[in-house]
Fold these 3 entries.
Entry 1:
Amino acid sequence: MLHLTDIQLQDNKVFLSMLSHVLSVDGFYFSTTYDLTHTLQRLANTSPEFQEMSLLERADPRFVWNGHLLREFAAQPEIHRFATPVMHGFITMHSCSINGKCFDWLLVSRRSCFRAGVRYYVRGIDSEGHAANFVETEQIVHYKGSKASFVQTRGSIPFFWSQRPNLKYKPKPQISKSVNHMDGFQRHFDSQIISYGKQMIVNLVNQKGSEKPLEQTFAKMVNSMANVMVRYVAFDFHKECSRMRWDRLQILMDQLAEQQDEFSYFLVDSDGKIVTQQEGIFRSNCMDCLDRTNVIQSLLARRSLQAQLQRLGVLHVGQRIEEQADFEKIYKNAWADNANACAKQYAGTGALKTDYTRTGKRTQWGLIMDGWNSLIRYYKNNFSDGFRQDAIDLFLGNYSVDEVEPASPLHVKKDWKFLALPIIMVVAFSMCIICLLMAGKSLSFISQNQLACVQTFCKRLPDTIQYKIAFQSFLKVCKCGSGDWGLALYHYYGKNLSYYRKQC
């Protein structure tokens, strides 16, 4: 530190704050005895030589978030035992009981460190086929030595597109026109097929508006690839479930049921013998691969868990998970917590639609919380996510600090408009709130004065019928918000209007 200049010392403080920011986000996990980066099925299908490797050697590099920090350890096998891979995502474990039979239920989500980043800054795929916000989610059951698991994935729509923040609530997605989409698209699904087998794409984006071109391009590219291992289904989540019709999600579940039965799940008995293997996965996505995606994944996982628990003998024939109140509460809350963890790591706030995941129905309070989280997302996406993205790139080694670099990116001068914009936004928002608060008082004051004037005017009218007509007309005008009592009277007493207005 002594050889650093004053500017470099200041830069070093900023870089340290970036690293601290990344590490302050919840969801980092490690184990010194168990390989968290692999699914049960992958671990069960490995060789004895693989089992003898150190955790660092055998870890799936997609899910090792401290890989850059361990690069010098990786080059020296004799010190591998001191290096522990760290996974980022979500893990929850519960000891549960149904029909007096105790079992352990786990939910594990592993976030990929390839093409990692924040919501609007990282979309689509890179040239290697790595998708943004790629998460592998595994549901595990342990019962009397037997183990069962069901794996799903989520990830950004796998071609080259972007959605850069521009102060609009929902920036328009832009599909790149200068690259060959099929190369990256093919690489993405080649690697997915190697890792998981058959692919069932569940695309949940809107099929109209700004999201429509993404859905159309995705479907077109799947058809052009013509790979029998990859199937595609589109479901317009927002359209189908509009007006609180969340029961219509069953339409999609029925559509996917046959495919899910074909994929099956992984099951190994207490003797270590593999009974069934999962032959394929559901790759779900929406725009962010957060809210809509998590809802669908929880429903698919529930259907698989139903079959697993029946096969293990925990559930009796004809029994359903939904009928087990205690476990149902644990299940829903765990999936809602999973949604919140993934959303905070990618979008900066808790997930939307978690009221449905927790309770099985949409609530008014849930809508209010969704609105609040959407406002927080809007601010963060436009004004603070740039720092978050830089911090992640620094932590993962996508950007390396060069001591001899003449000018640090931290010293790039920002336009005064960029610096003033947050202040302008805060002032404008404050003025809107003040206007809304003052409007009620002002309207009340005006209405009382108008009422007094109309009453004074109407007392001068020759009979009560005309009084009633004028007064009723005034009330109609006030109700529609015109604010001019004279307008109500003009239709009946036009030529005398100016005289009576003066009297008031």
Entry 2:
Amino acid sequence: MTESTWKRTLREASEADDRREKQPRRAHHAPSLLSLQPGDTVWYIPKHMDAAYAGQQATVRRGPRKDVLNASVRVEFSDGQQRTLRLNLVSRAAPRTATAPLIDEARRLPSWKRLLALLDRPEEEARQQAEDRARQIAGMVTPKAERKFSSDLVPALLDAARADLAAAAARQAQRGGRGPVAPTHLPVPTDDLAQLELDQDRRAMMNNIARAIHRRYFLSDAELRDLTEKEREQERVQGLVSVFIRTAQGDAGLVPVKDSSKGKGSALHGQLHDSLAEAYPLALEACQMLVAGKDQHAMTLALDVRERLLAHVAANTELDRARRKHHTGRYFHGDVLSVREEHEDGSMTQYYARLTIVYAEDGHSLIVANAAELESLTGTRAGVQAWTSLCRWIEDHSDRAGGRKQGRRQDDDEHLLYRDDRDTLVLRDSVERYPSILRAFECIRRALMMPERAKDILRSEIPDNHPAPGHHVLQQTLAKEGGLDKLPQN
């Protein structure tokens, strides 16, 4: 059967398309490359720049043919080695070696700020995102003819971004040789201490912390005066004399009298001073009358002395009632708490933590100013009630120790929270008056145990006469066994 004409035409066209698809496509090269002649200079630019002779200059020994599908060229390198290269692997233009113009162009892009923000984050995911962002920026600033070099530009972009971050930190205010604290949000605490179970070691450490706070074991940041030995001796004598005078006045039921010459006082201040000044010579005269045997006259003088002492106490009470008691600033003389844990072998471990306790706006109550920082540092959520109870506990124990509040002072400062009951630490009943206070002490304990590099405490804040943080082995000294007569005789 004879094939129709239209079917034969369609079949031949289809076969021609199939043959055309099977044939390799001819590469299209720039006319400048097809016109290469022996003696011309080209640069070898492979796909991967880690290949041999990559980026080197070569001399053409044989030019390309224009009637072939994949044109090639024969080149000779500087060491005499000759190679036949495909035409798309050579270039008449030298590869770009200076990255400074490209980096300057990258700094003008909006993506540069996002790259700096990613490098400033410590997470591993942020590091990978920063590398991806650097590759994107390298592709944006690299010319189209040199896109294959964009991967080589990525390390240079990352180094330039890190240098910009370091320069920005150096331009900010420094403190103690370190950069300023980054203005980032504090991490949210994760441990809410729902089940606070403390073993004996933790309870002993809490007793140690409570004793340090109560005894005010804080590093003082007061400025030390540079005195001579004579001035120090004079200061010491004056201090002892002042202590003797205050002790004698306290035993007599009196208070120190303010020097009226330092300022103009009210009538109550005058009465306060005059009553005590008049009582002193009358008391001496009464003693003389007793020595002379004039008991009746001495009794009259004693009643006059008592009357003036009562007037003095009444005037002092009125002044104390009218005196404004408003405090500001810190409650303690420092804000770096020093806790020392002694071990059975004679060694000890020194801990430091920042605990800033200041007066509240009312001038009476206390607050922990760095409570949020402590919770963020330790990942412990103590709560407002815990810090409030801690401040109230500090005030109560300080007032009782100073005699300003009723109540018996703790006999043993070593066991302020847990008492020793047959070699077992048991929580005191008085601690129940301070709800959730153990949460605050646990947060402080964890802050003390944190690595020193995570704390915001400079080495310059620790005086030279205080031990450095960490474990210390005490120097072994010869024990004295008896007197000189106990020494071995030769």
Entry 3:
Amino acid sequence: MTSRKLFGKELNEFDDVDVDDLLTQLSAEELEILSKEVDPDDRFMPPDQRTNYHCDREATGPVNRKQLIDHINKIALETPDQPESVPFVAGVVRGKKWIPPEAPVIATREDDGVSFNLEDEYEQALGTATEEELVDLAAILGFHSMMNQDQYHASLLNKDKVGLGWDGVTKASQPKALPYEPPNTLDPEQAILKVDDDDCKTIELCFNNINMTDDQFYRLFKALENNTTLEVLSLSNTGMTDRTAEALAEALEKNSSLRIINLETNQISANGIVRLIKSLLVQKSIEEFRASNQLTAHVLGNKAEMDITQYIEQNTSLMRVGLFFEFNDARSRVATQLQKNIDRTINGVLLANEGSNSQTVKYVDAIPLFHHNLGLAPMLEVALMQIDSYCRTAGLVIAGYYHASDAVGEMSPDAVSQKICEKIAEYFPNACLVLLNNRLLSKQMTQSAISIVQYSDGKWKIKDKENFKILPNNEAALNSVSSLLSKKIYKNFVDFDDHLDDIQQDWLNVALKSIID
């Protein structure tokens, strides 16, 4: 072990000495001397308490800044300069003169250029190419620095030569002057009346850059509590404070139609933003929430960021958040949760009564599987084992599979869906694969959005619509689906992604099935 010494004494013998015991043995004078040797390094402590020097003389009077500066200048002028060890003589170098070292000579080759051994055909083509053709070739090869921006983009768009020539200097183009945004012409009073009257045509309202009074905020948020049509509300740069934000939070706890809300560039504190994020957990209808650039909360602080993160992790409907997080932990956790909430490809299994004949299959139930970890074999195995155990007790059998892609209008099953359905077909030969066309989903369904594919003779074949029926009848089923979509019942669905994160969530969706029935 390396010895440690201070003024010739070993320091190892002081390792077990208690500092508090040493301080109790010091006198008041010794403690005062010790305190002068230690700088507390506390920026909140006044400077006269931090400095080692303490003047014991009494003040001679109030501080006169001008008189103090004049006195300092007078002392500086009257104090003689320190004599130089070597007197200054013009033209004489005092001390050793610095001579820069000789720069090393770098050997260069006679041919500094880069030579290419091209075939005669390529050399002839490049030698006879025009400047426009060379620009196009450079754009294809990605040589952005060999041309200016106008040349590059013009070559991509097959336009004529723009700007400088081929030998010109590469530089950015002058930005185009854009016109100023016109002022907001919305009448706040008329807009508040429309919200209060629940106007079916008022789906989006923009109050941006309108200086609203507290009374207008309170009336707007009071009307918002019972509104069922407004979906987008923008209140950027309207002068909102914590008082009015509390009224908005109470409205958000009662309103279920609002999807997007923008509160940027206001005067809401970090606690106010936490209160608003917490209010989104009641209805879980908000999909986009923006509240950055607050005048009083440029930085939220660790406690507020952790609270916001916990509330967002409990929210399954929020997909976009406009907030600045200073700490990486909060930022990464929020990003992970939002990624989970974004719509993805979903899948599930279809159940039929046990003992169904080979001619007709009647699906009586559906169990959602995943929306995030679609192709993980261990999770899929756990889910299918639990579903199979439930089917045995309920007199059901896994007789089909459904798949909905995250791409709009995509109607082809992926490799995972095909393999799962082929495995189901081994135990239930008439198993069907139901594909969902999300382009046809709307709040007013007029036609079926499903397509049925069956595995036969080693191929997937689409069944005609005449070969399957929706019970009790197609019109009643479409009306039921339209009603469920309007009420956003789908947000309460629990699949095995949710269940494996929290085993208290019911993957059978018993409460939800009672609403559907």
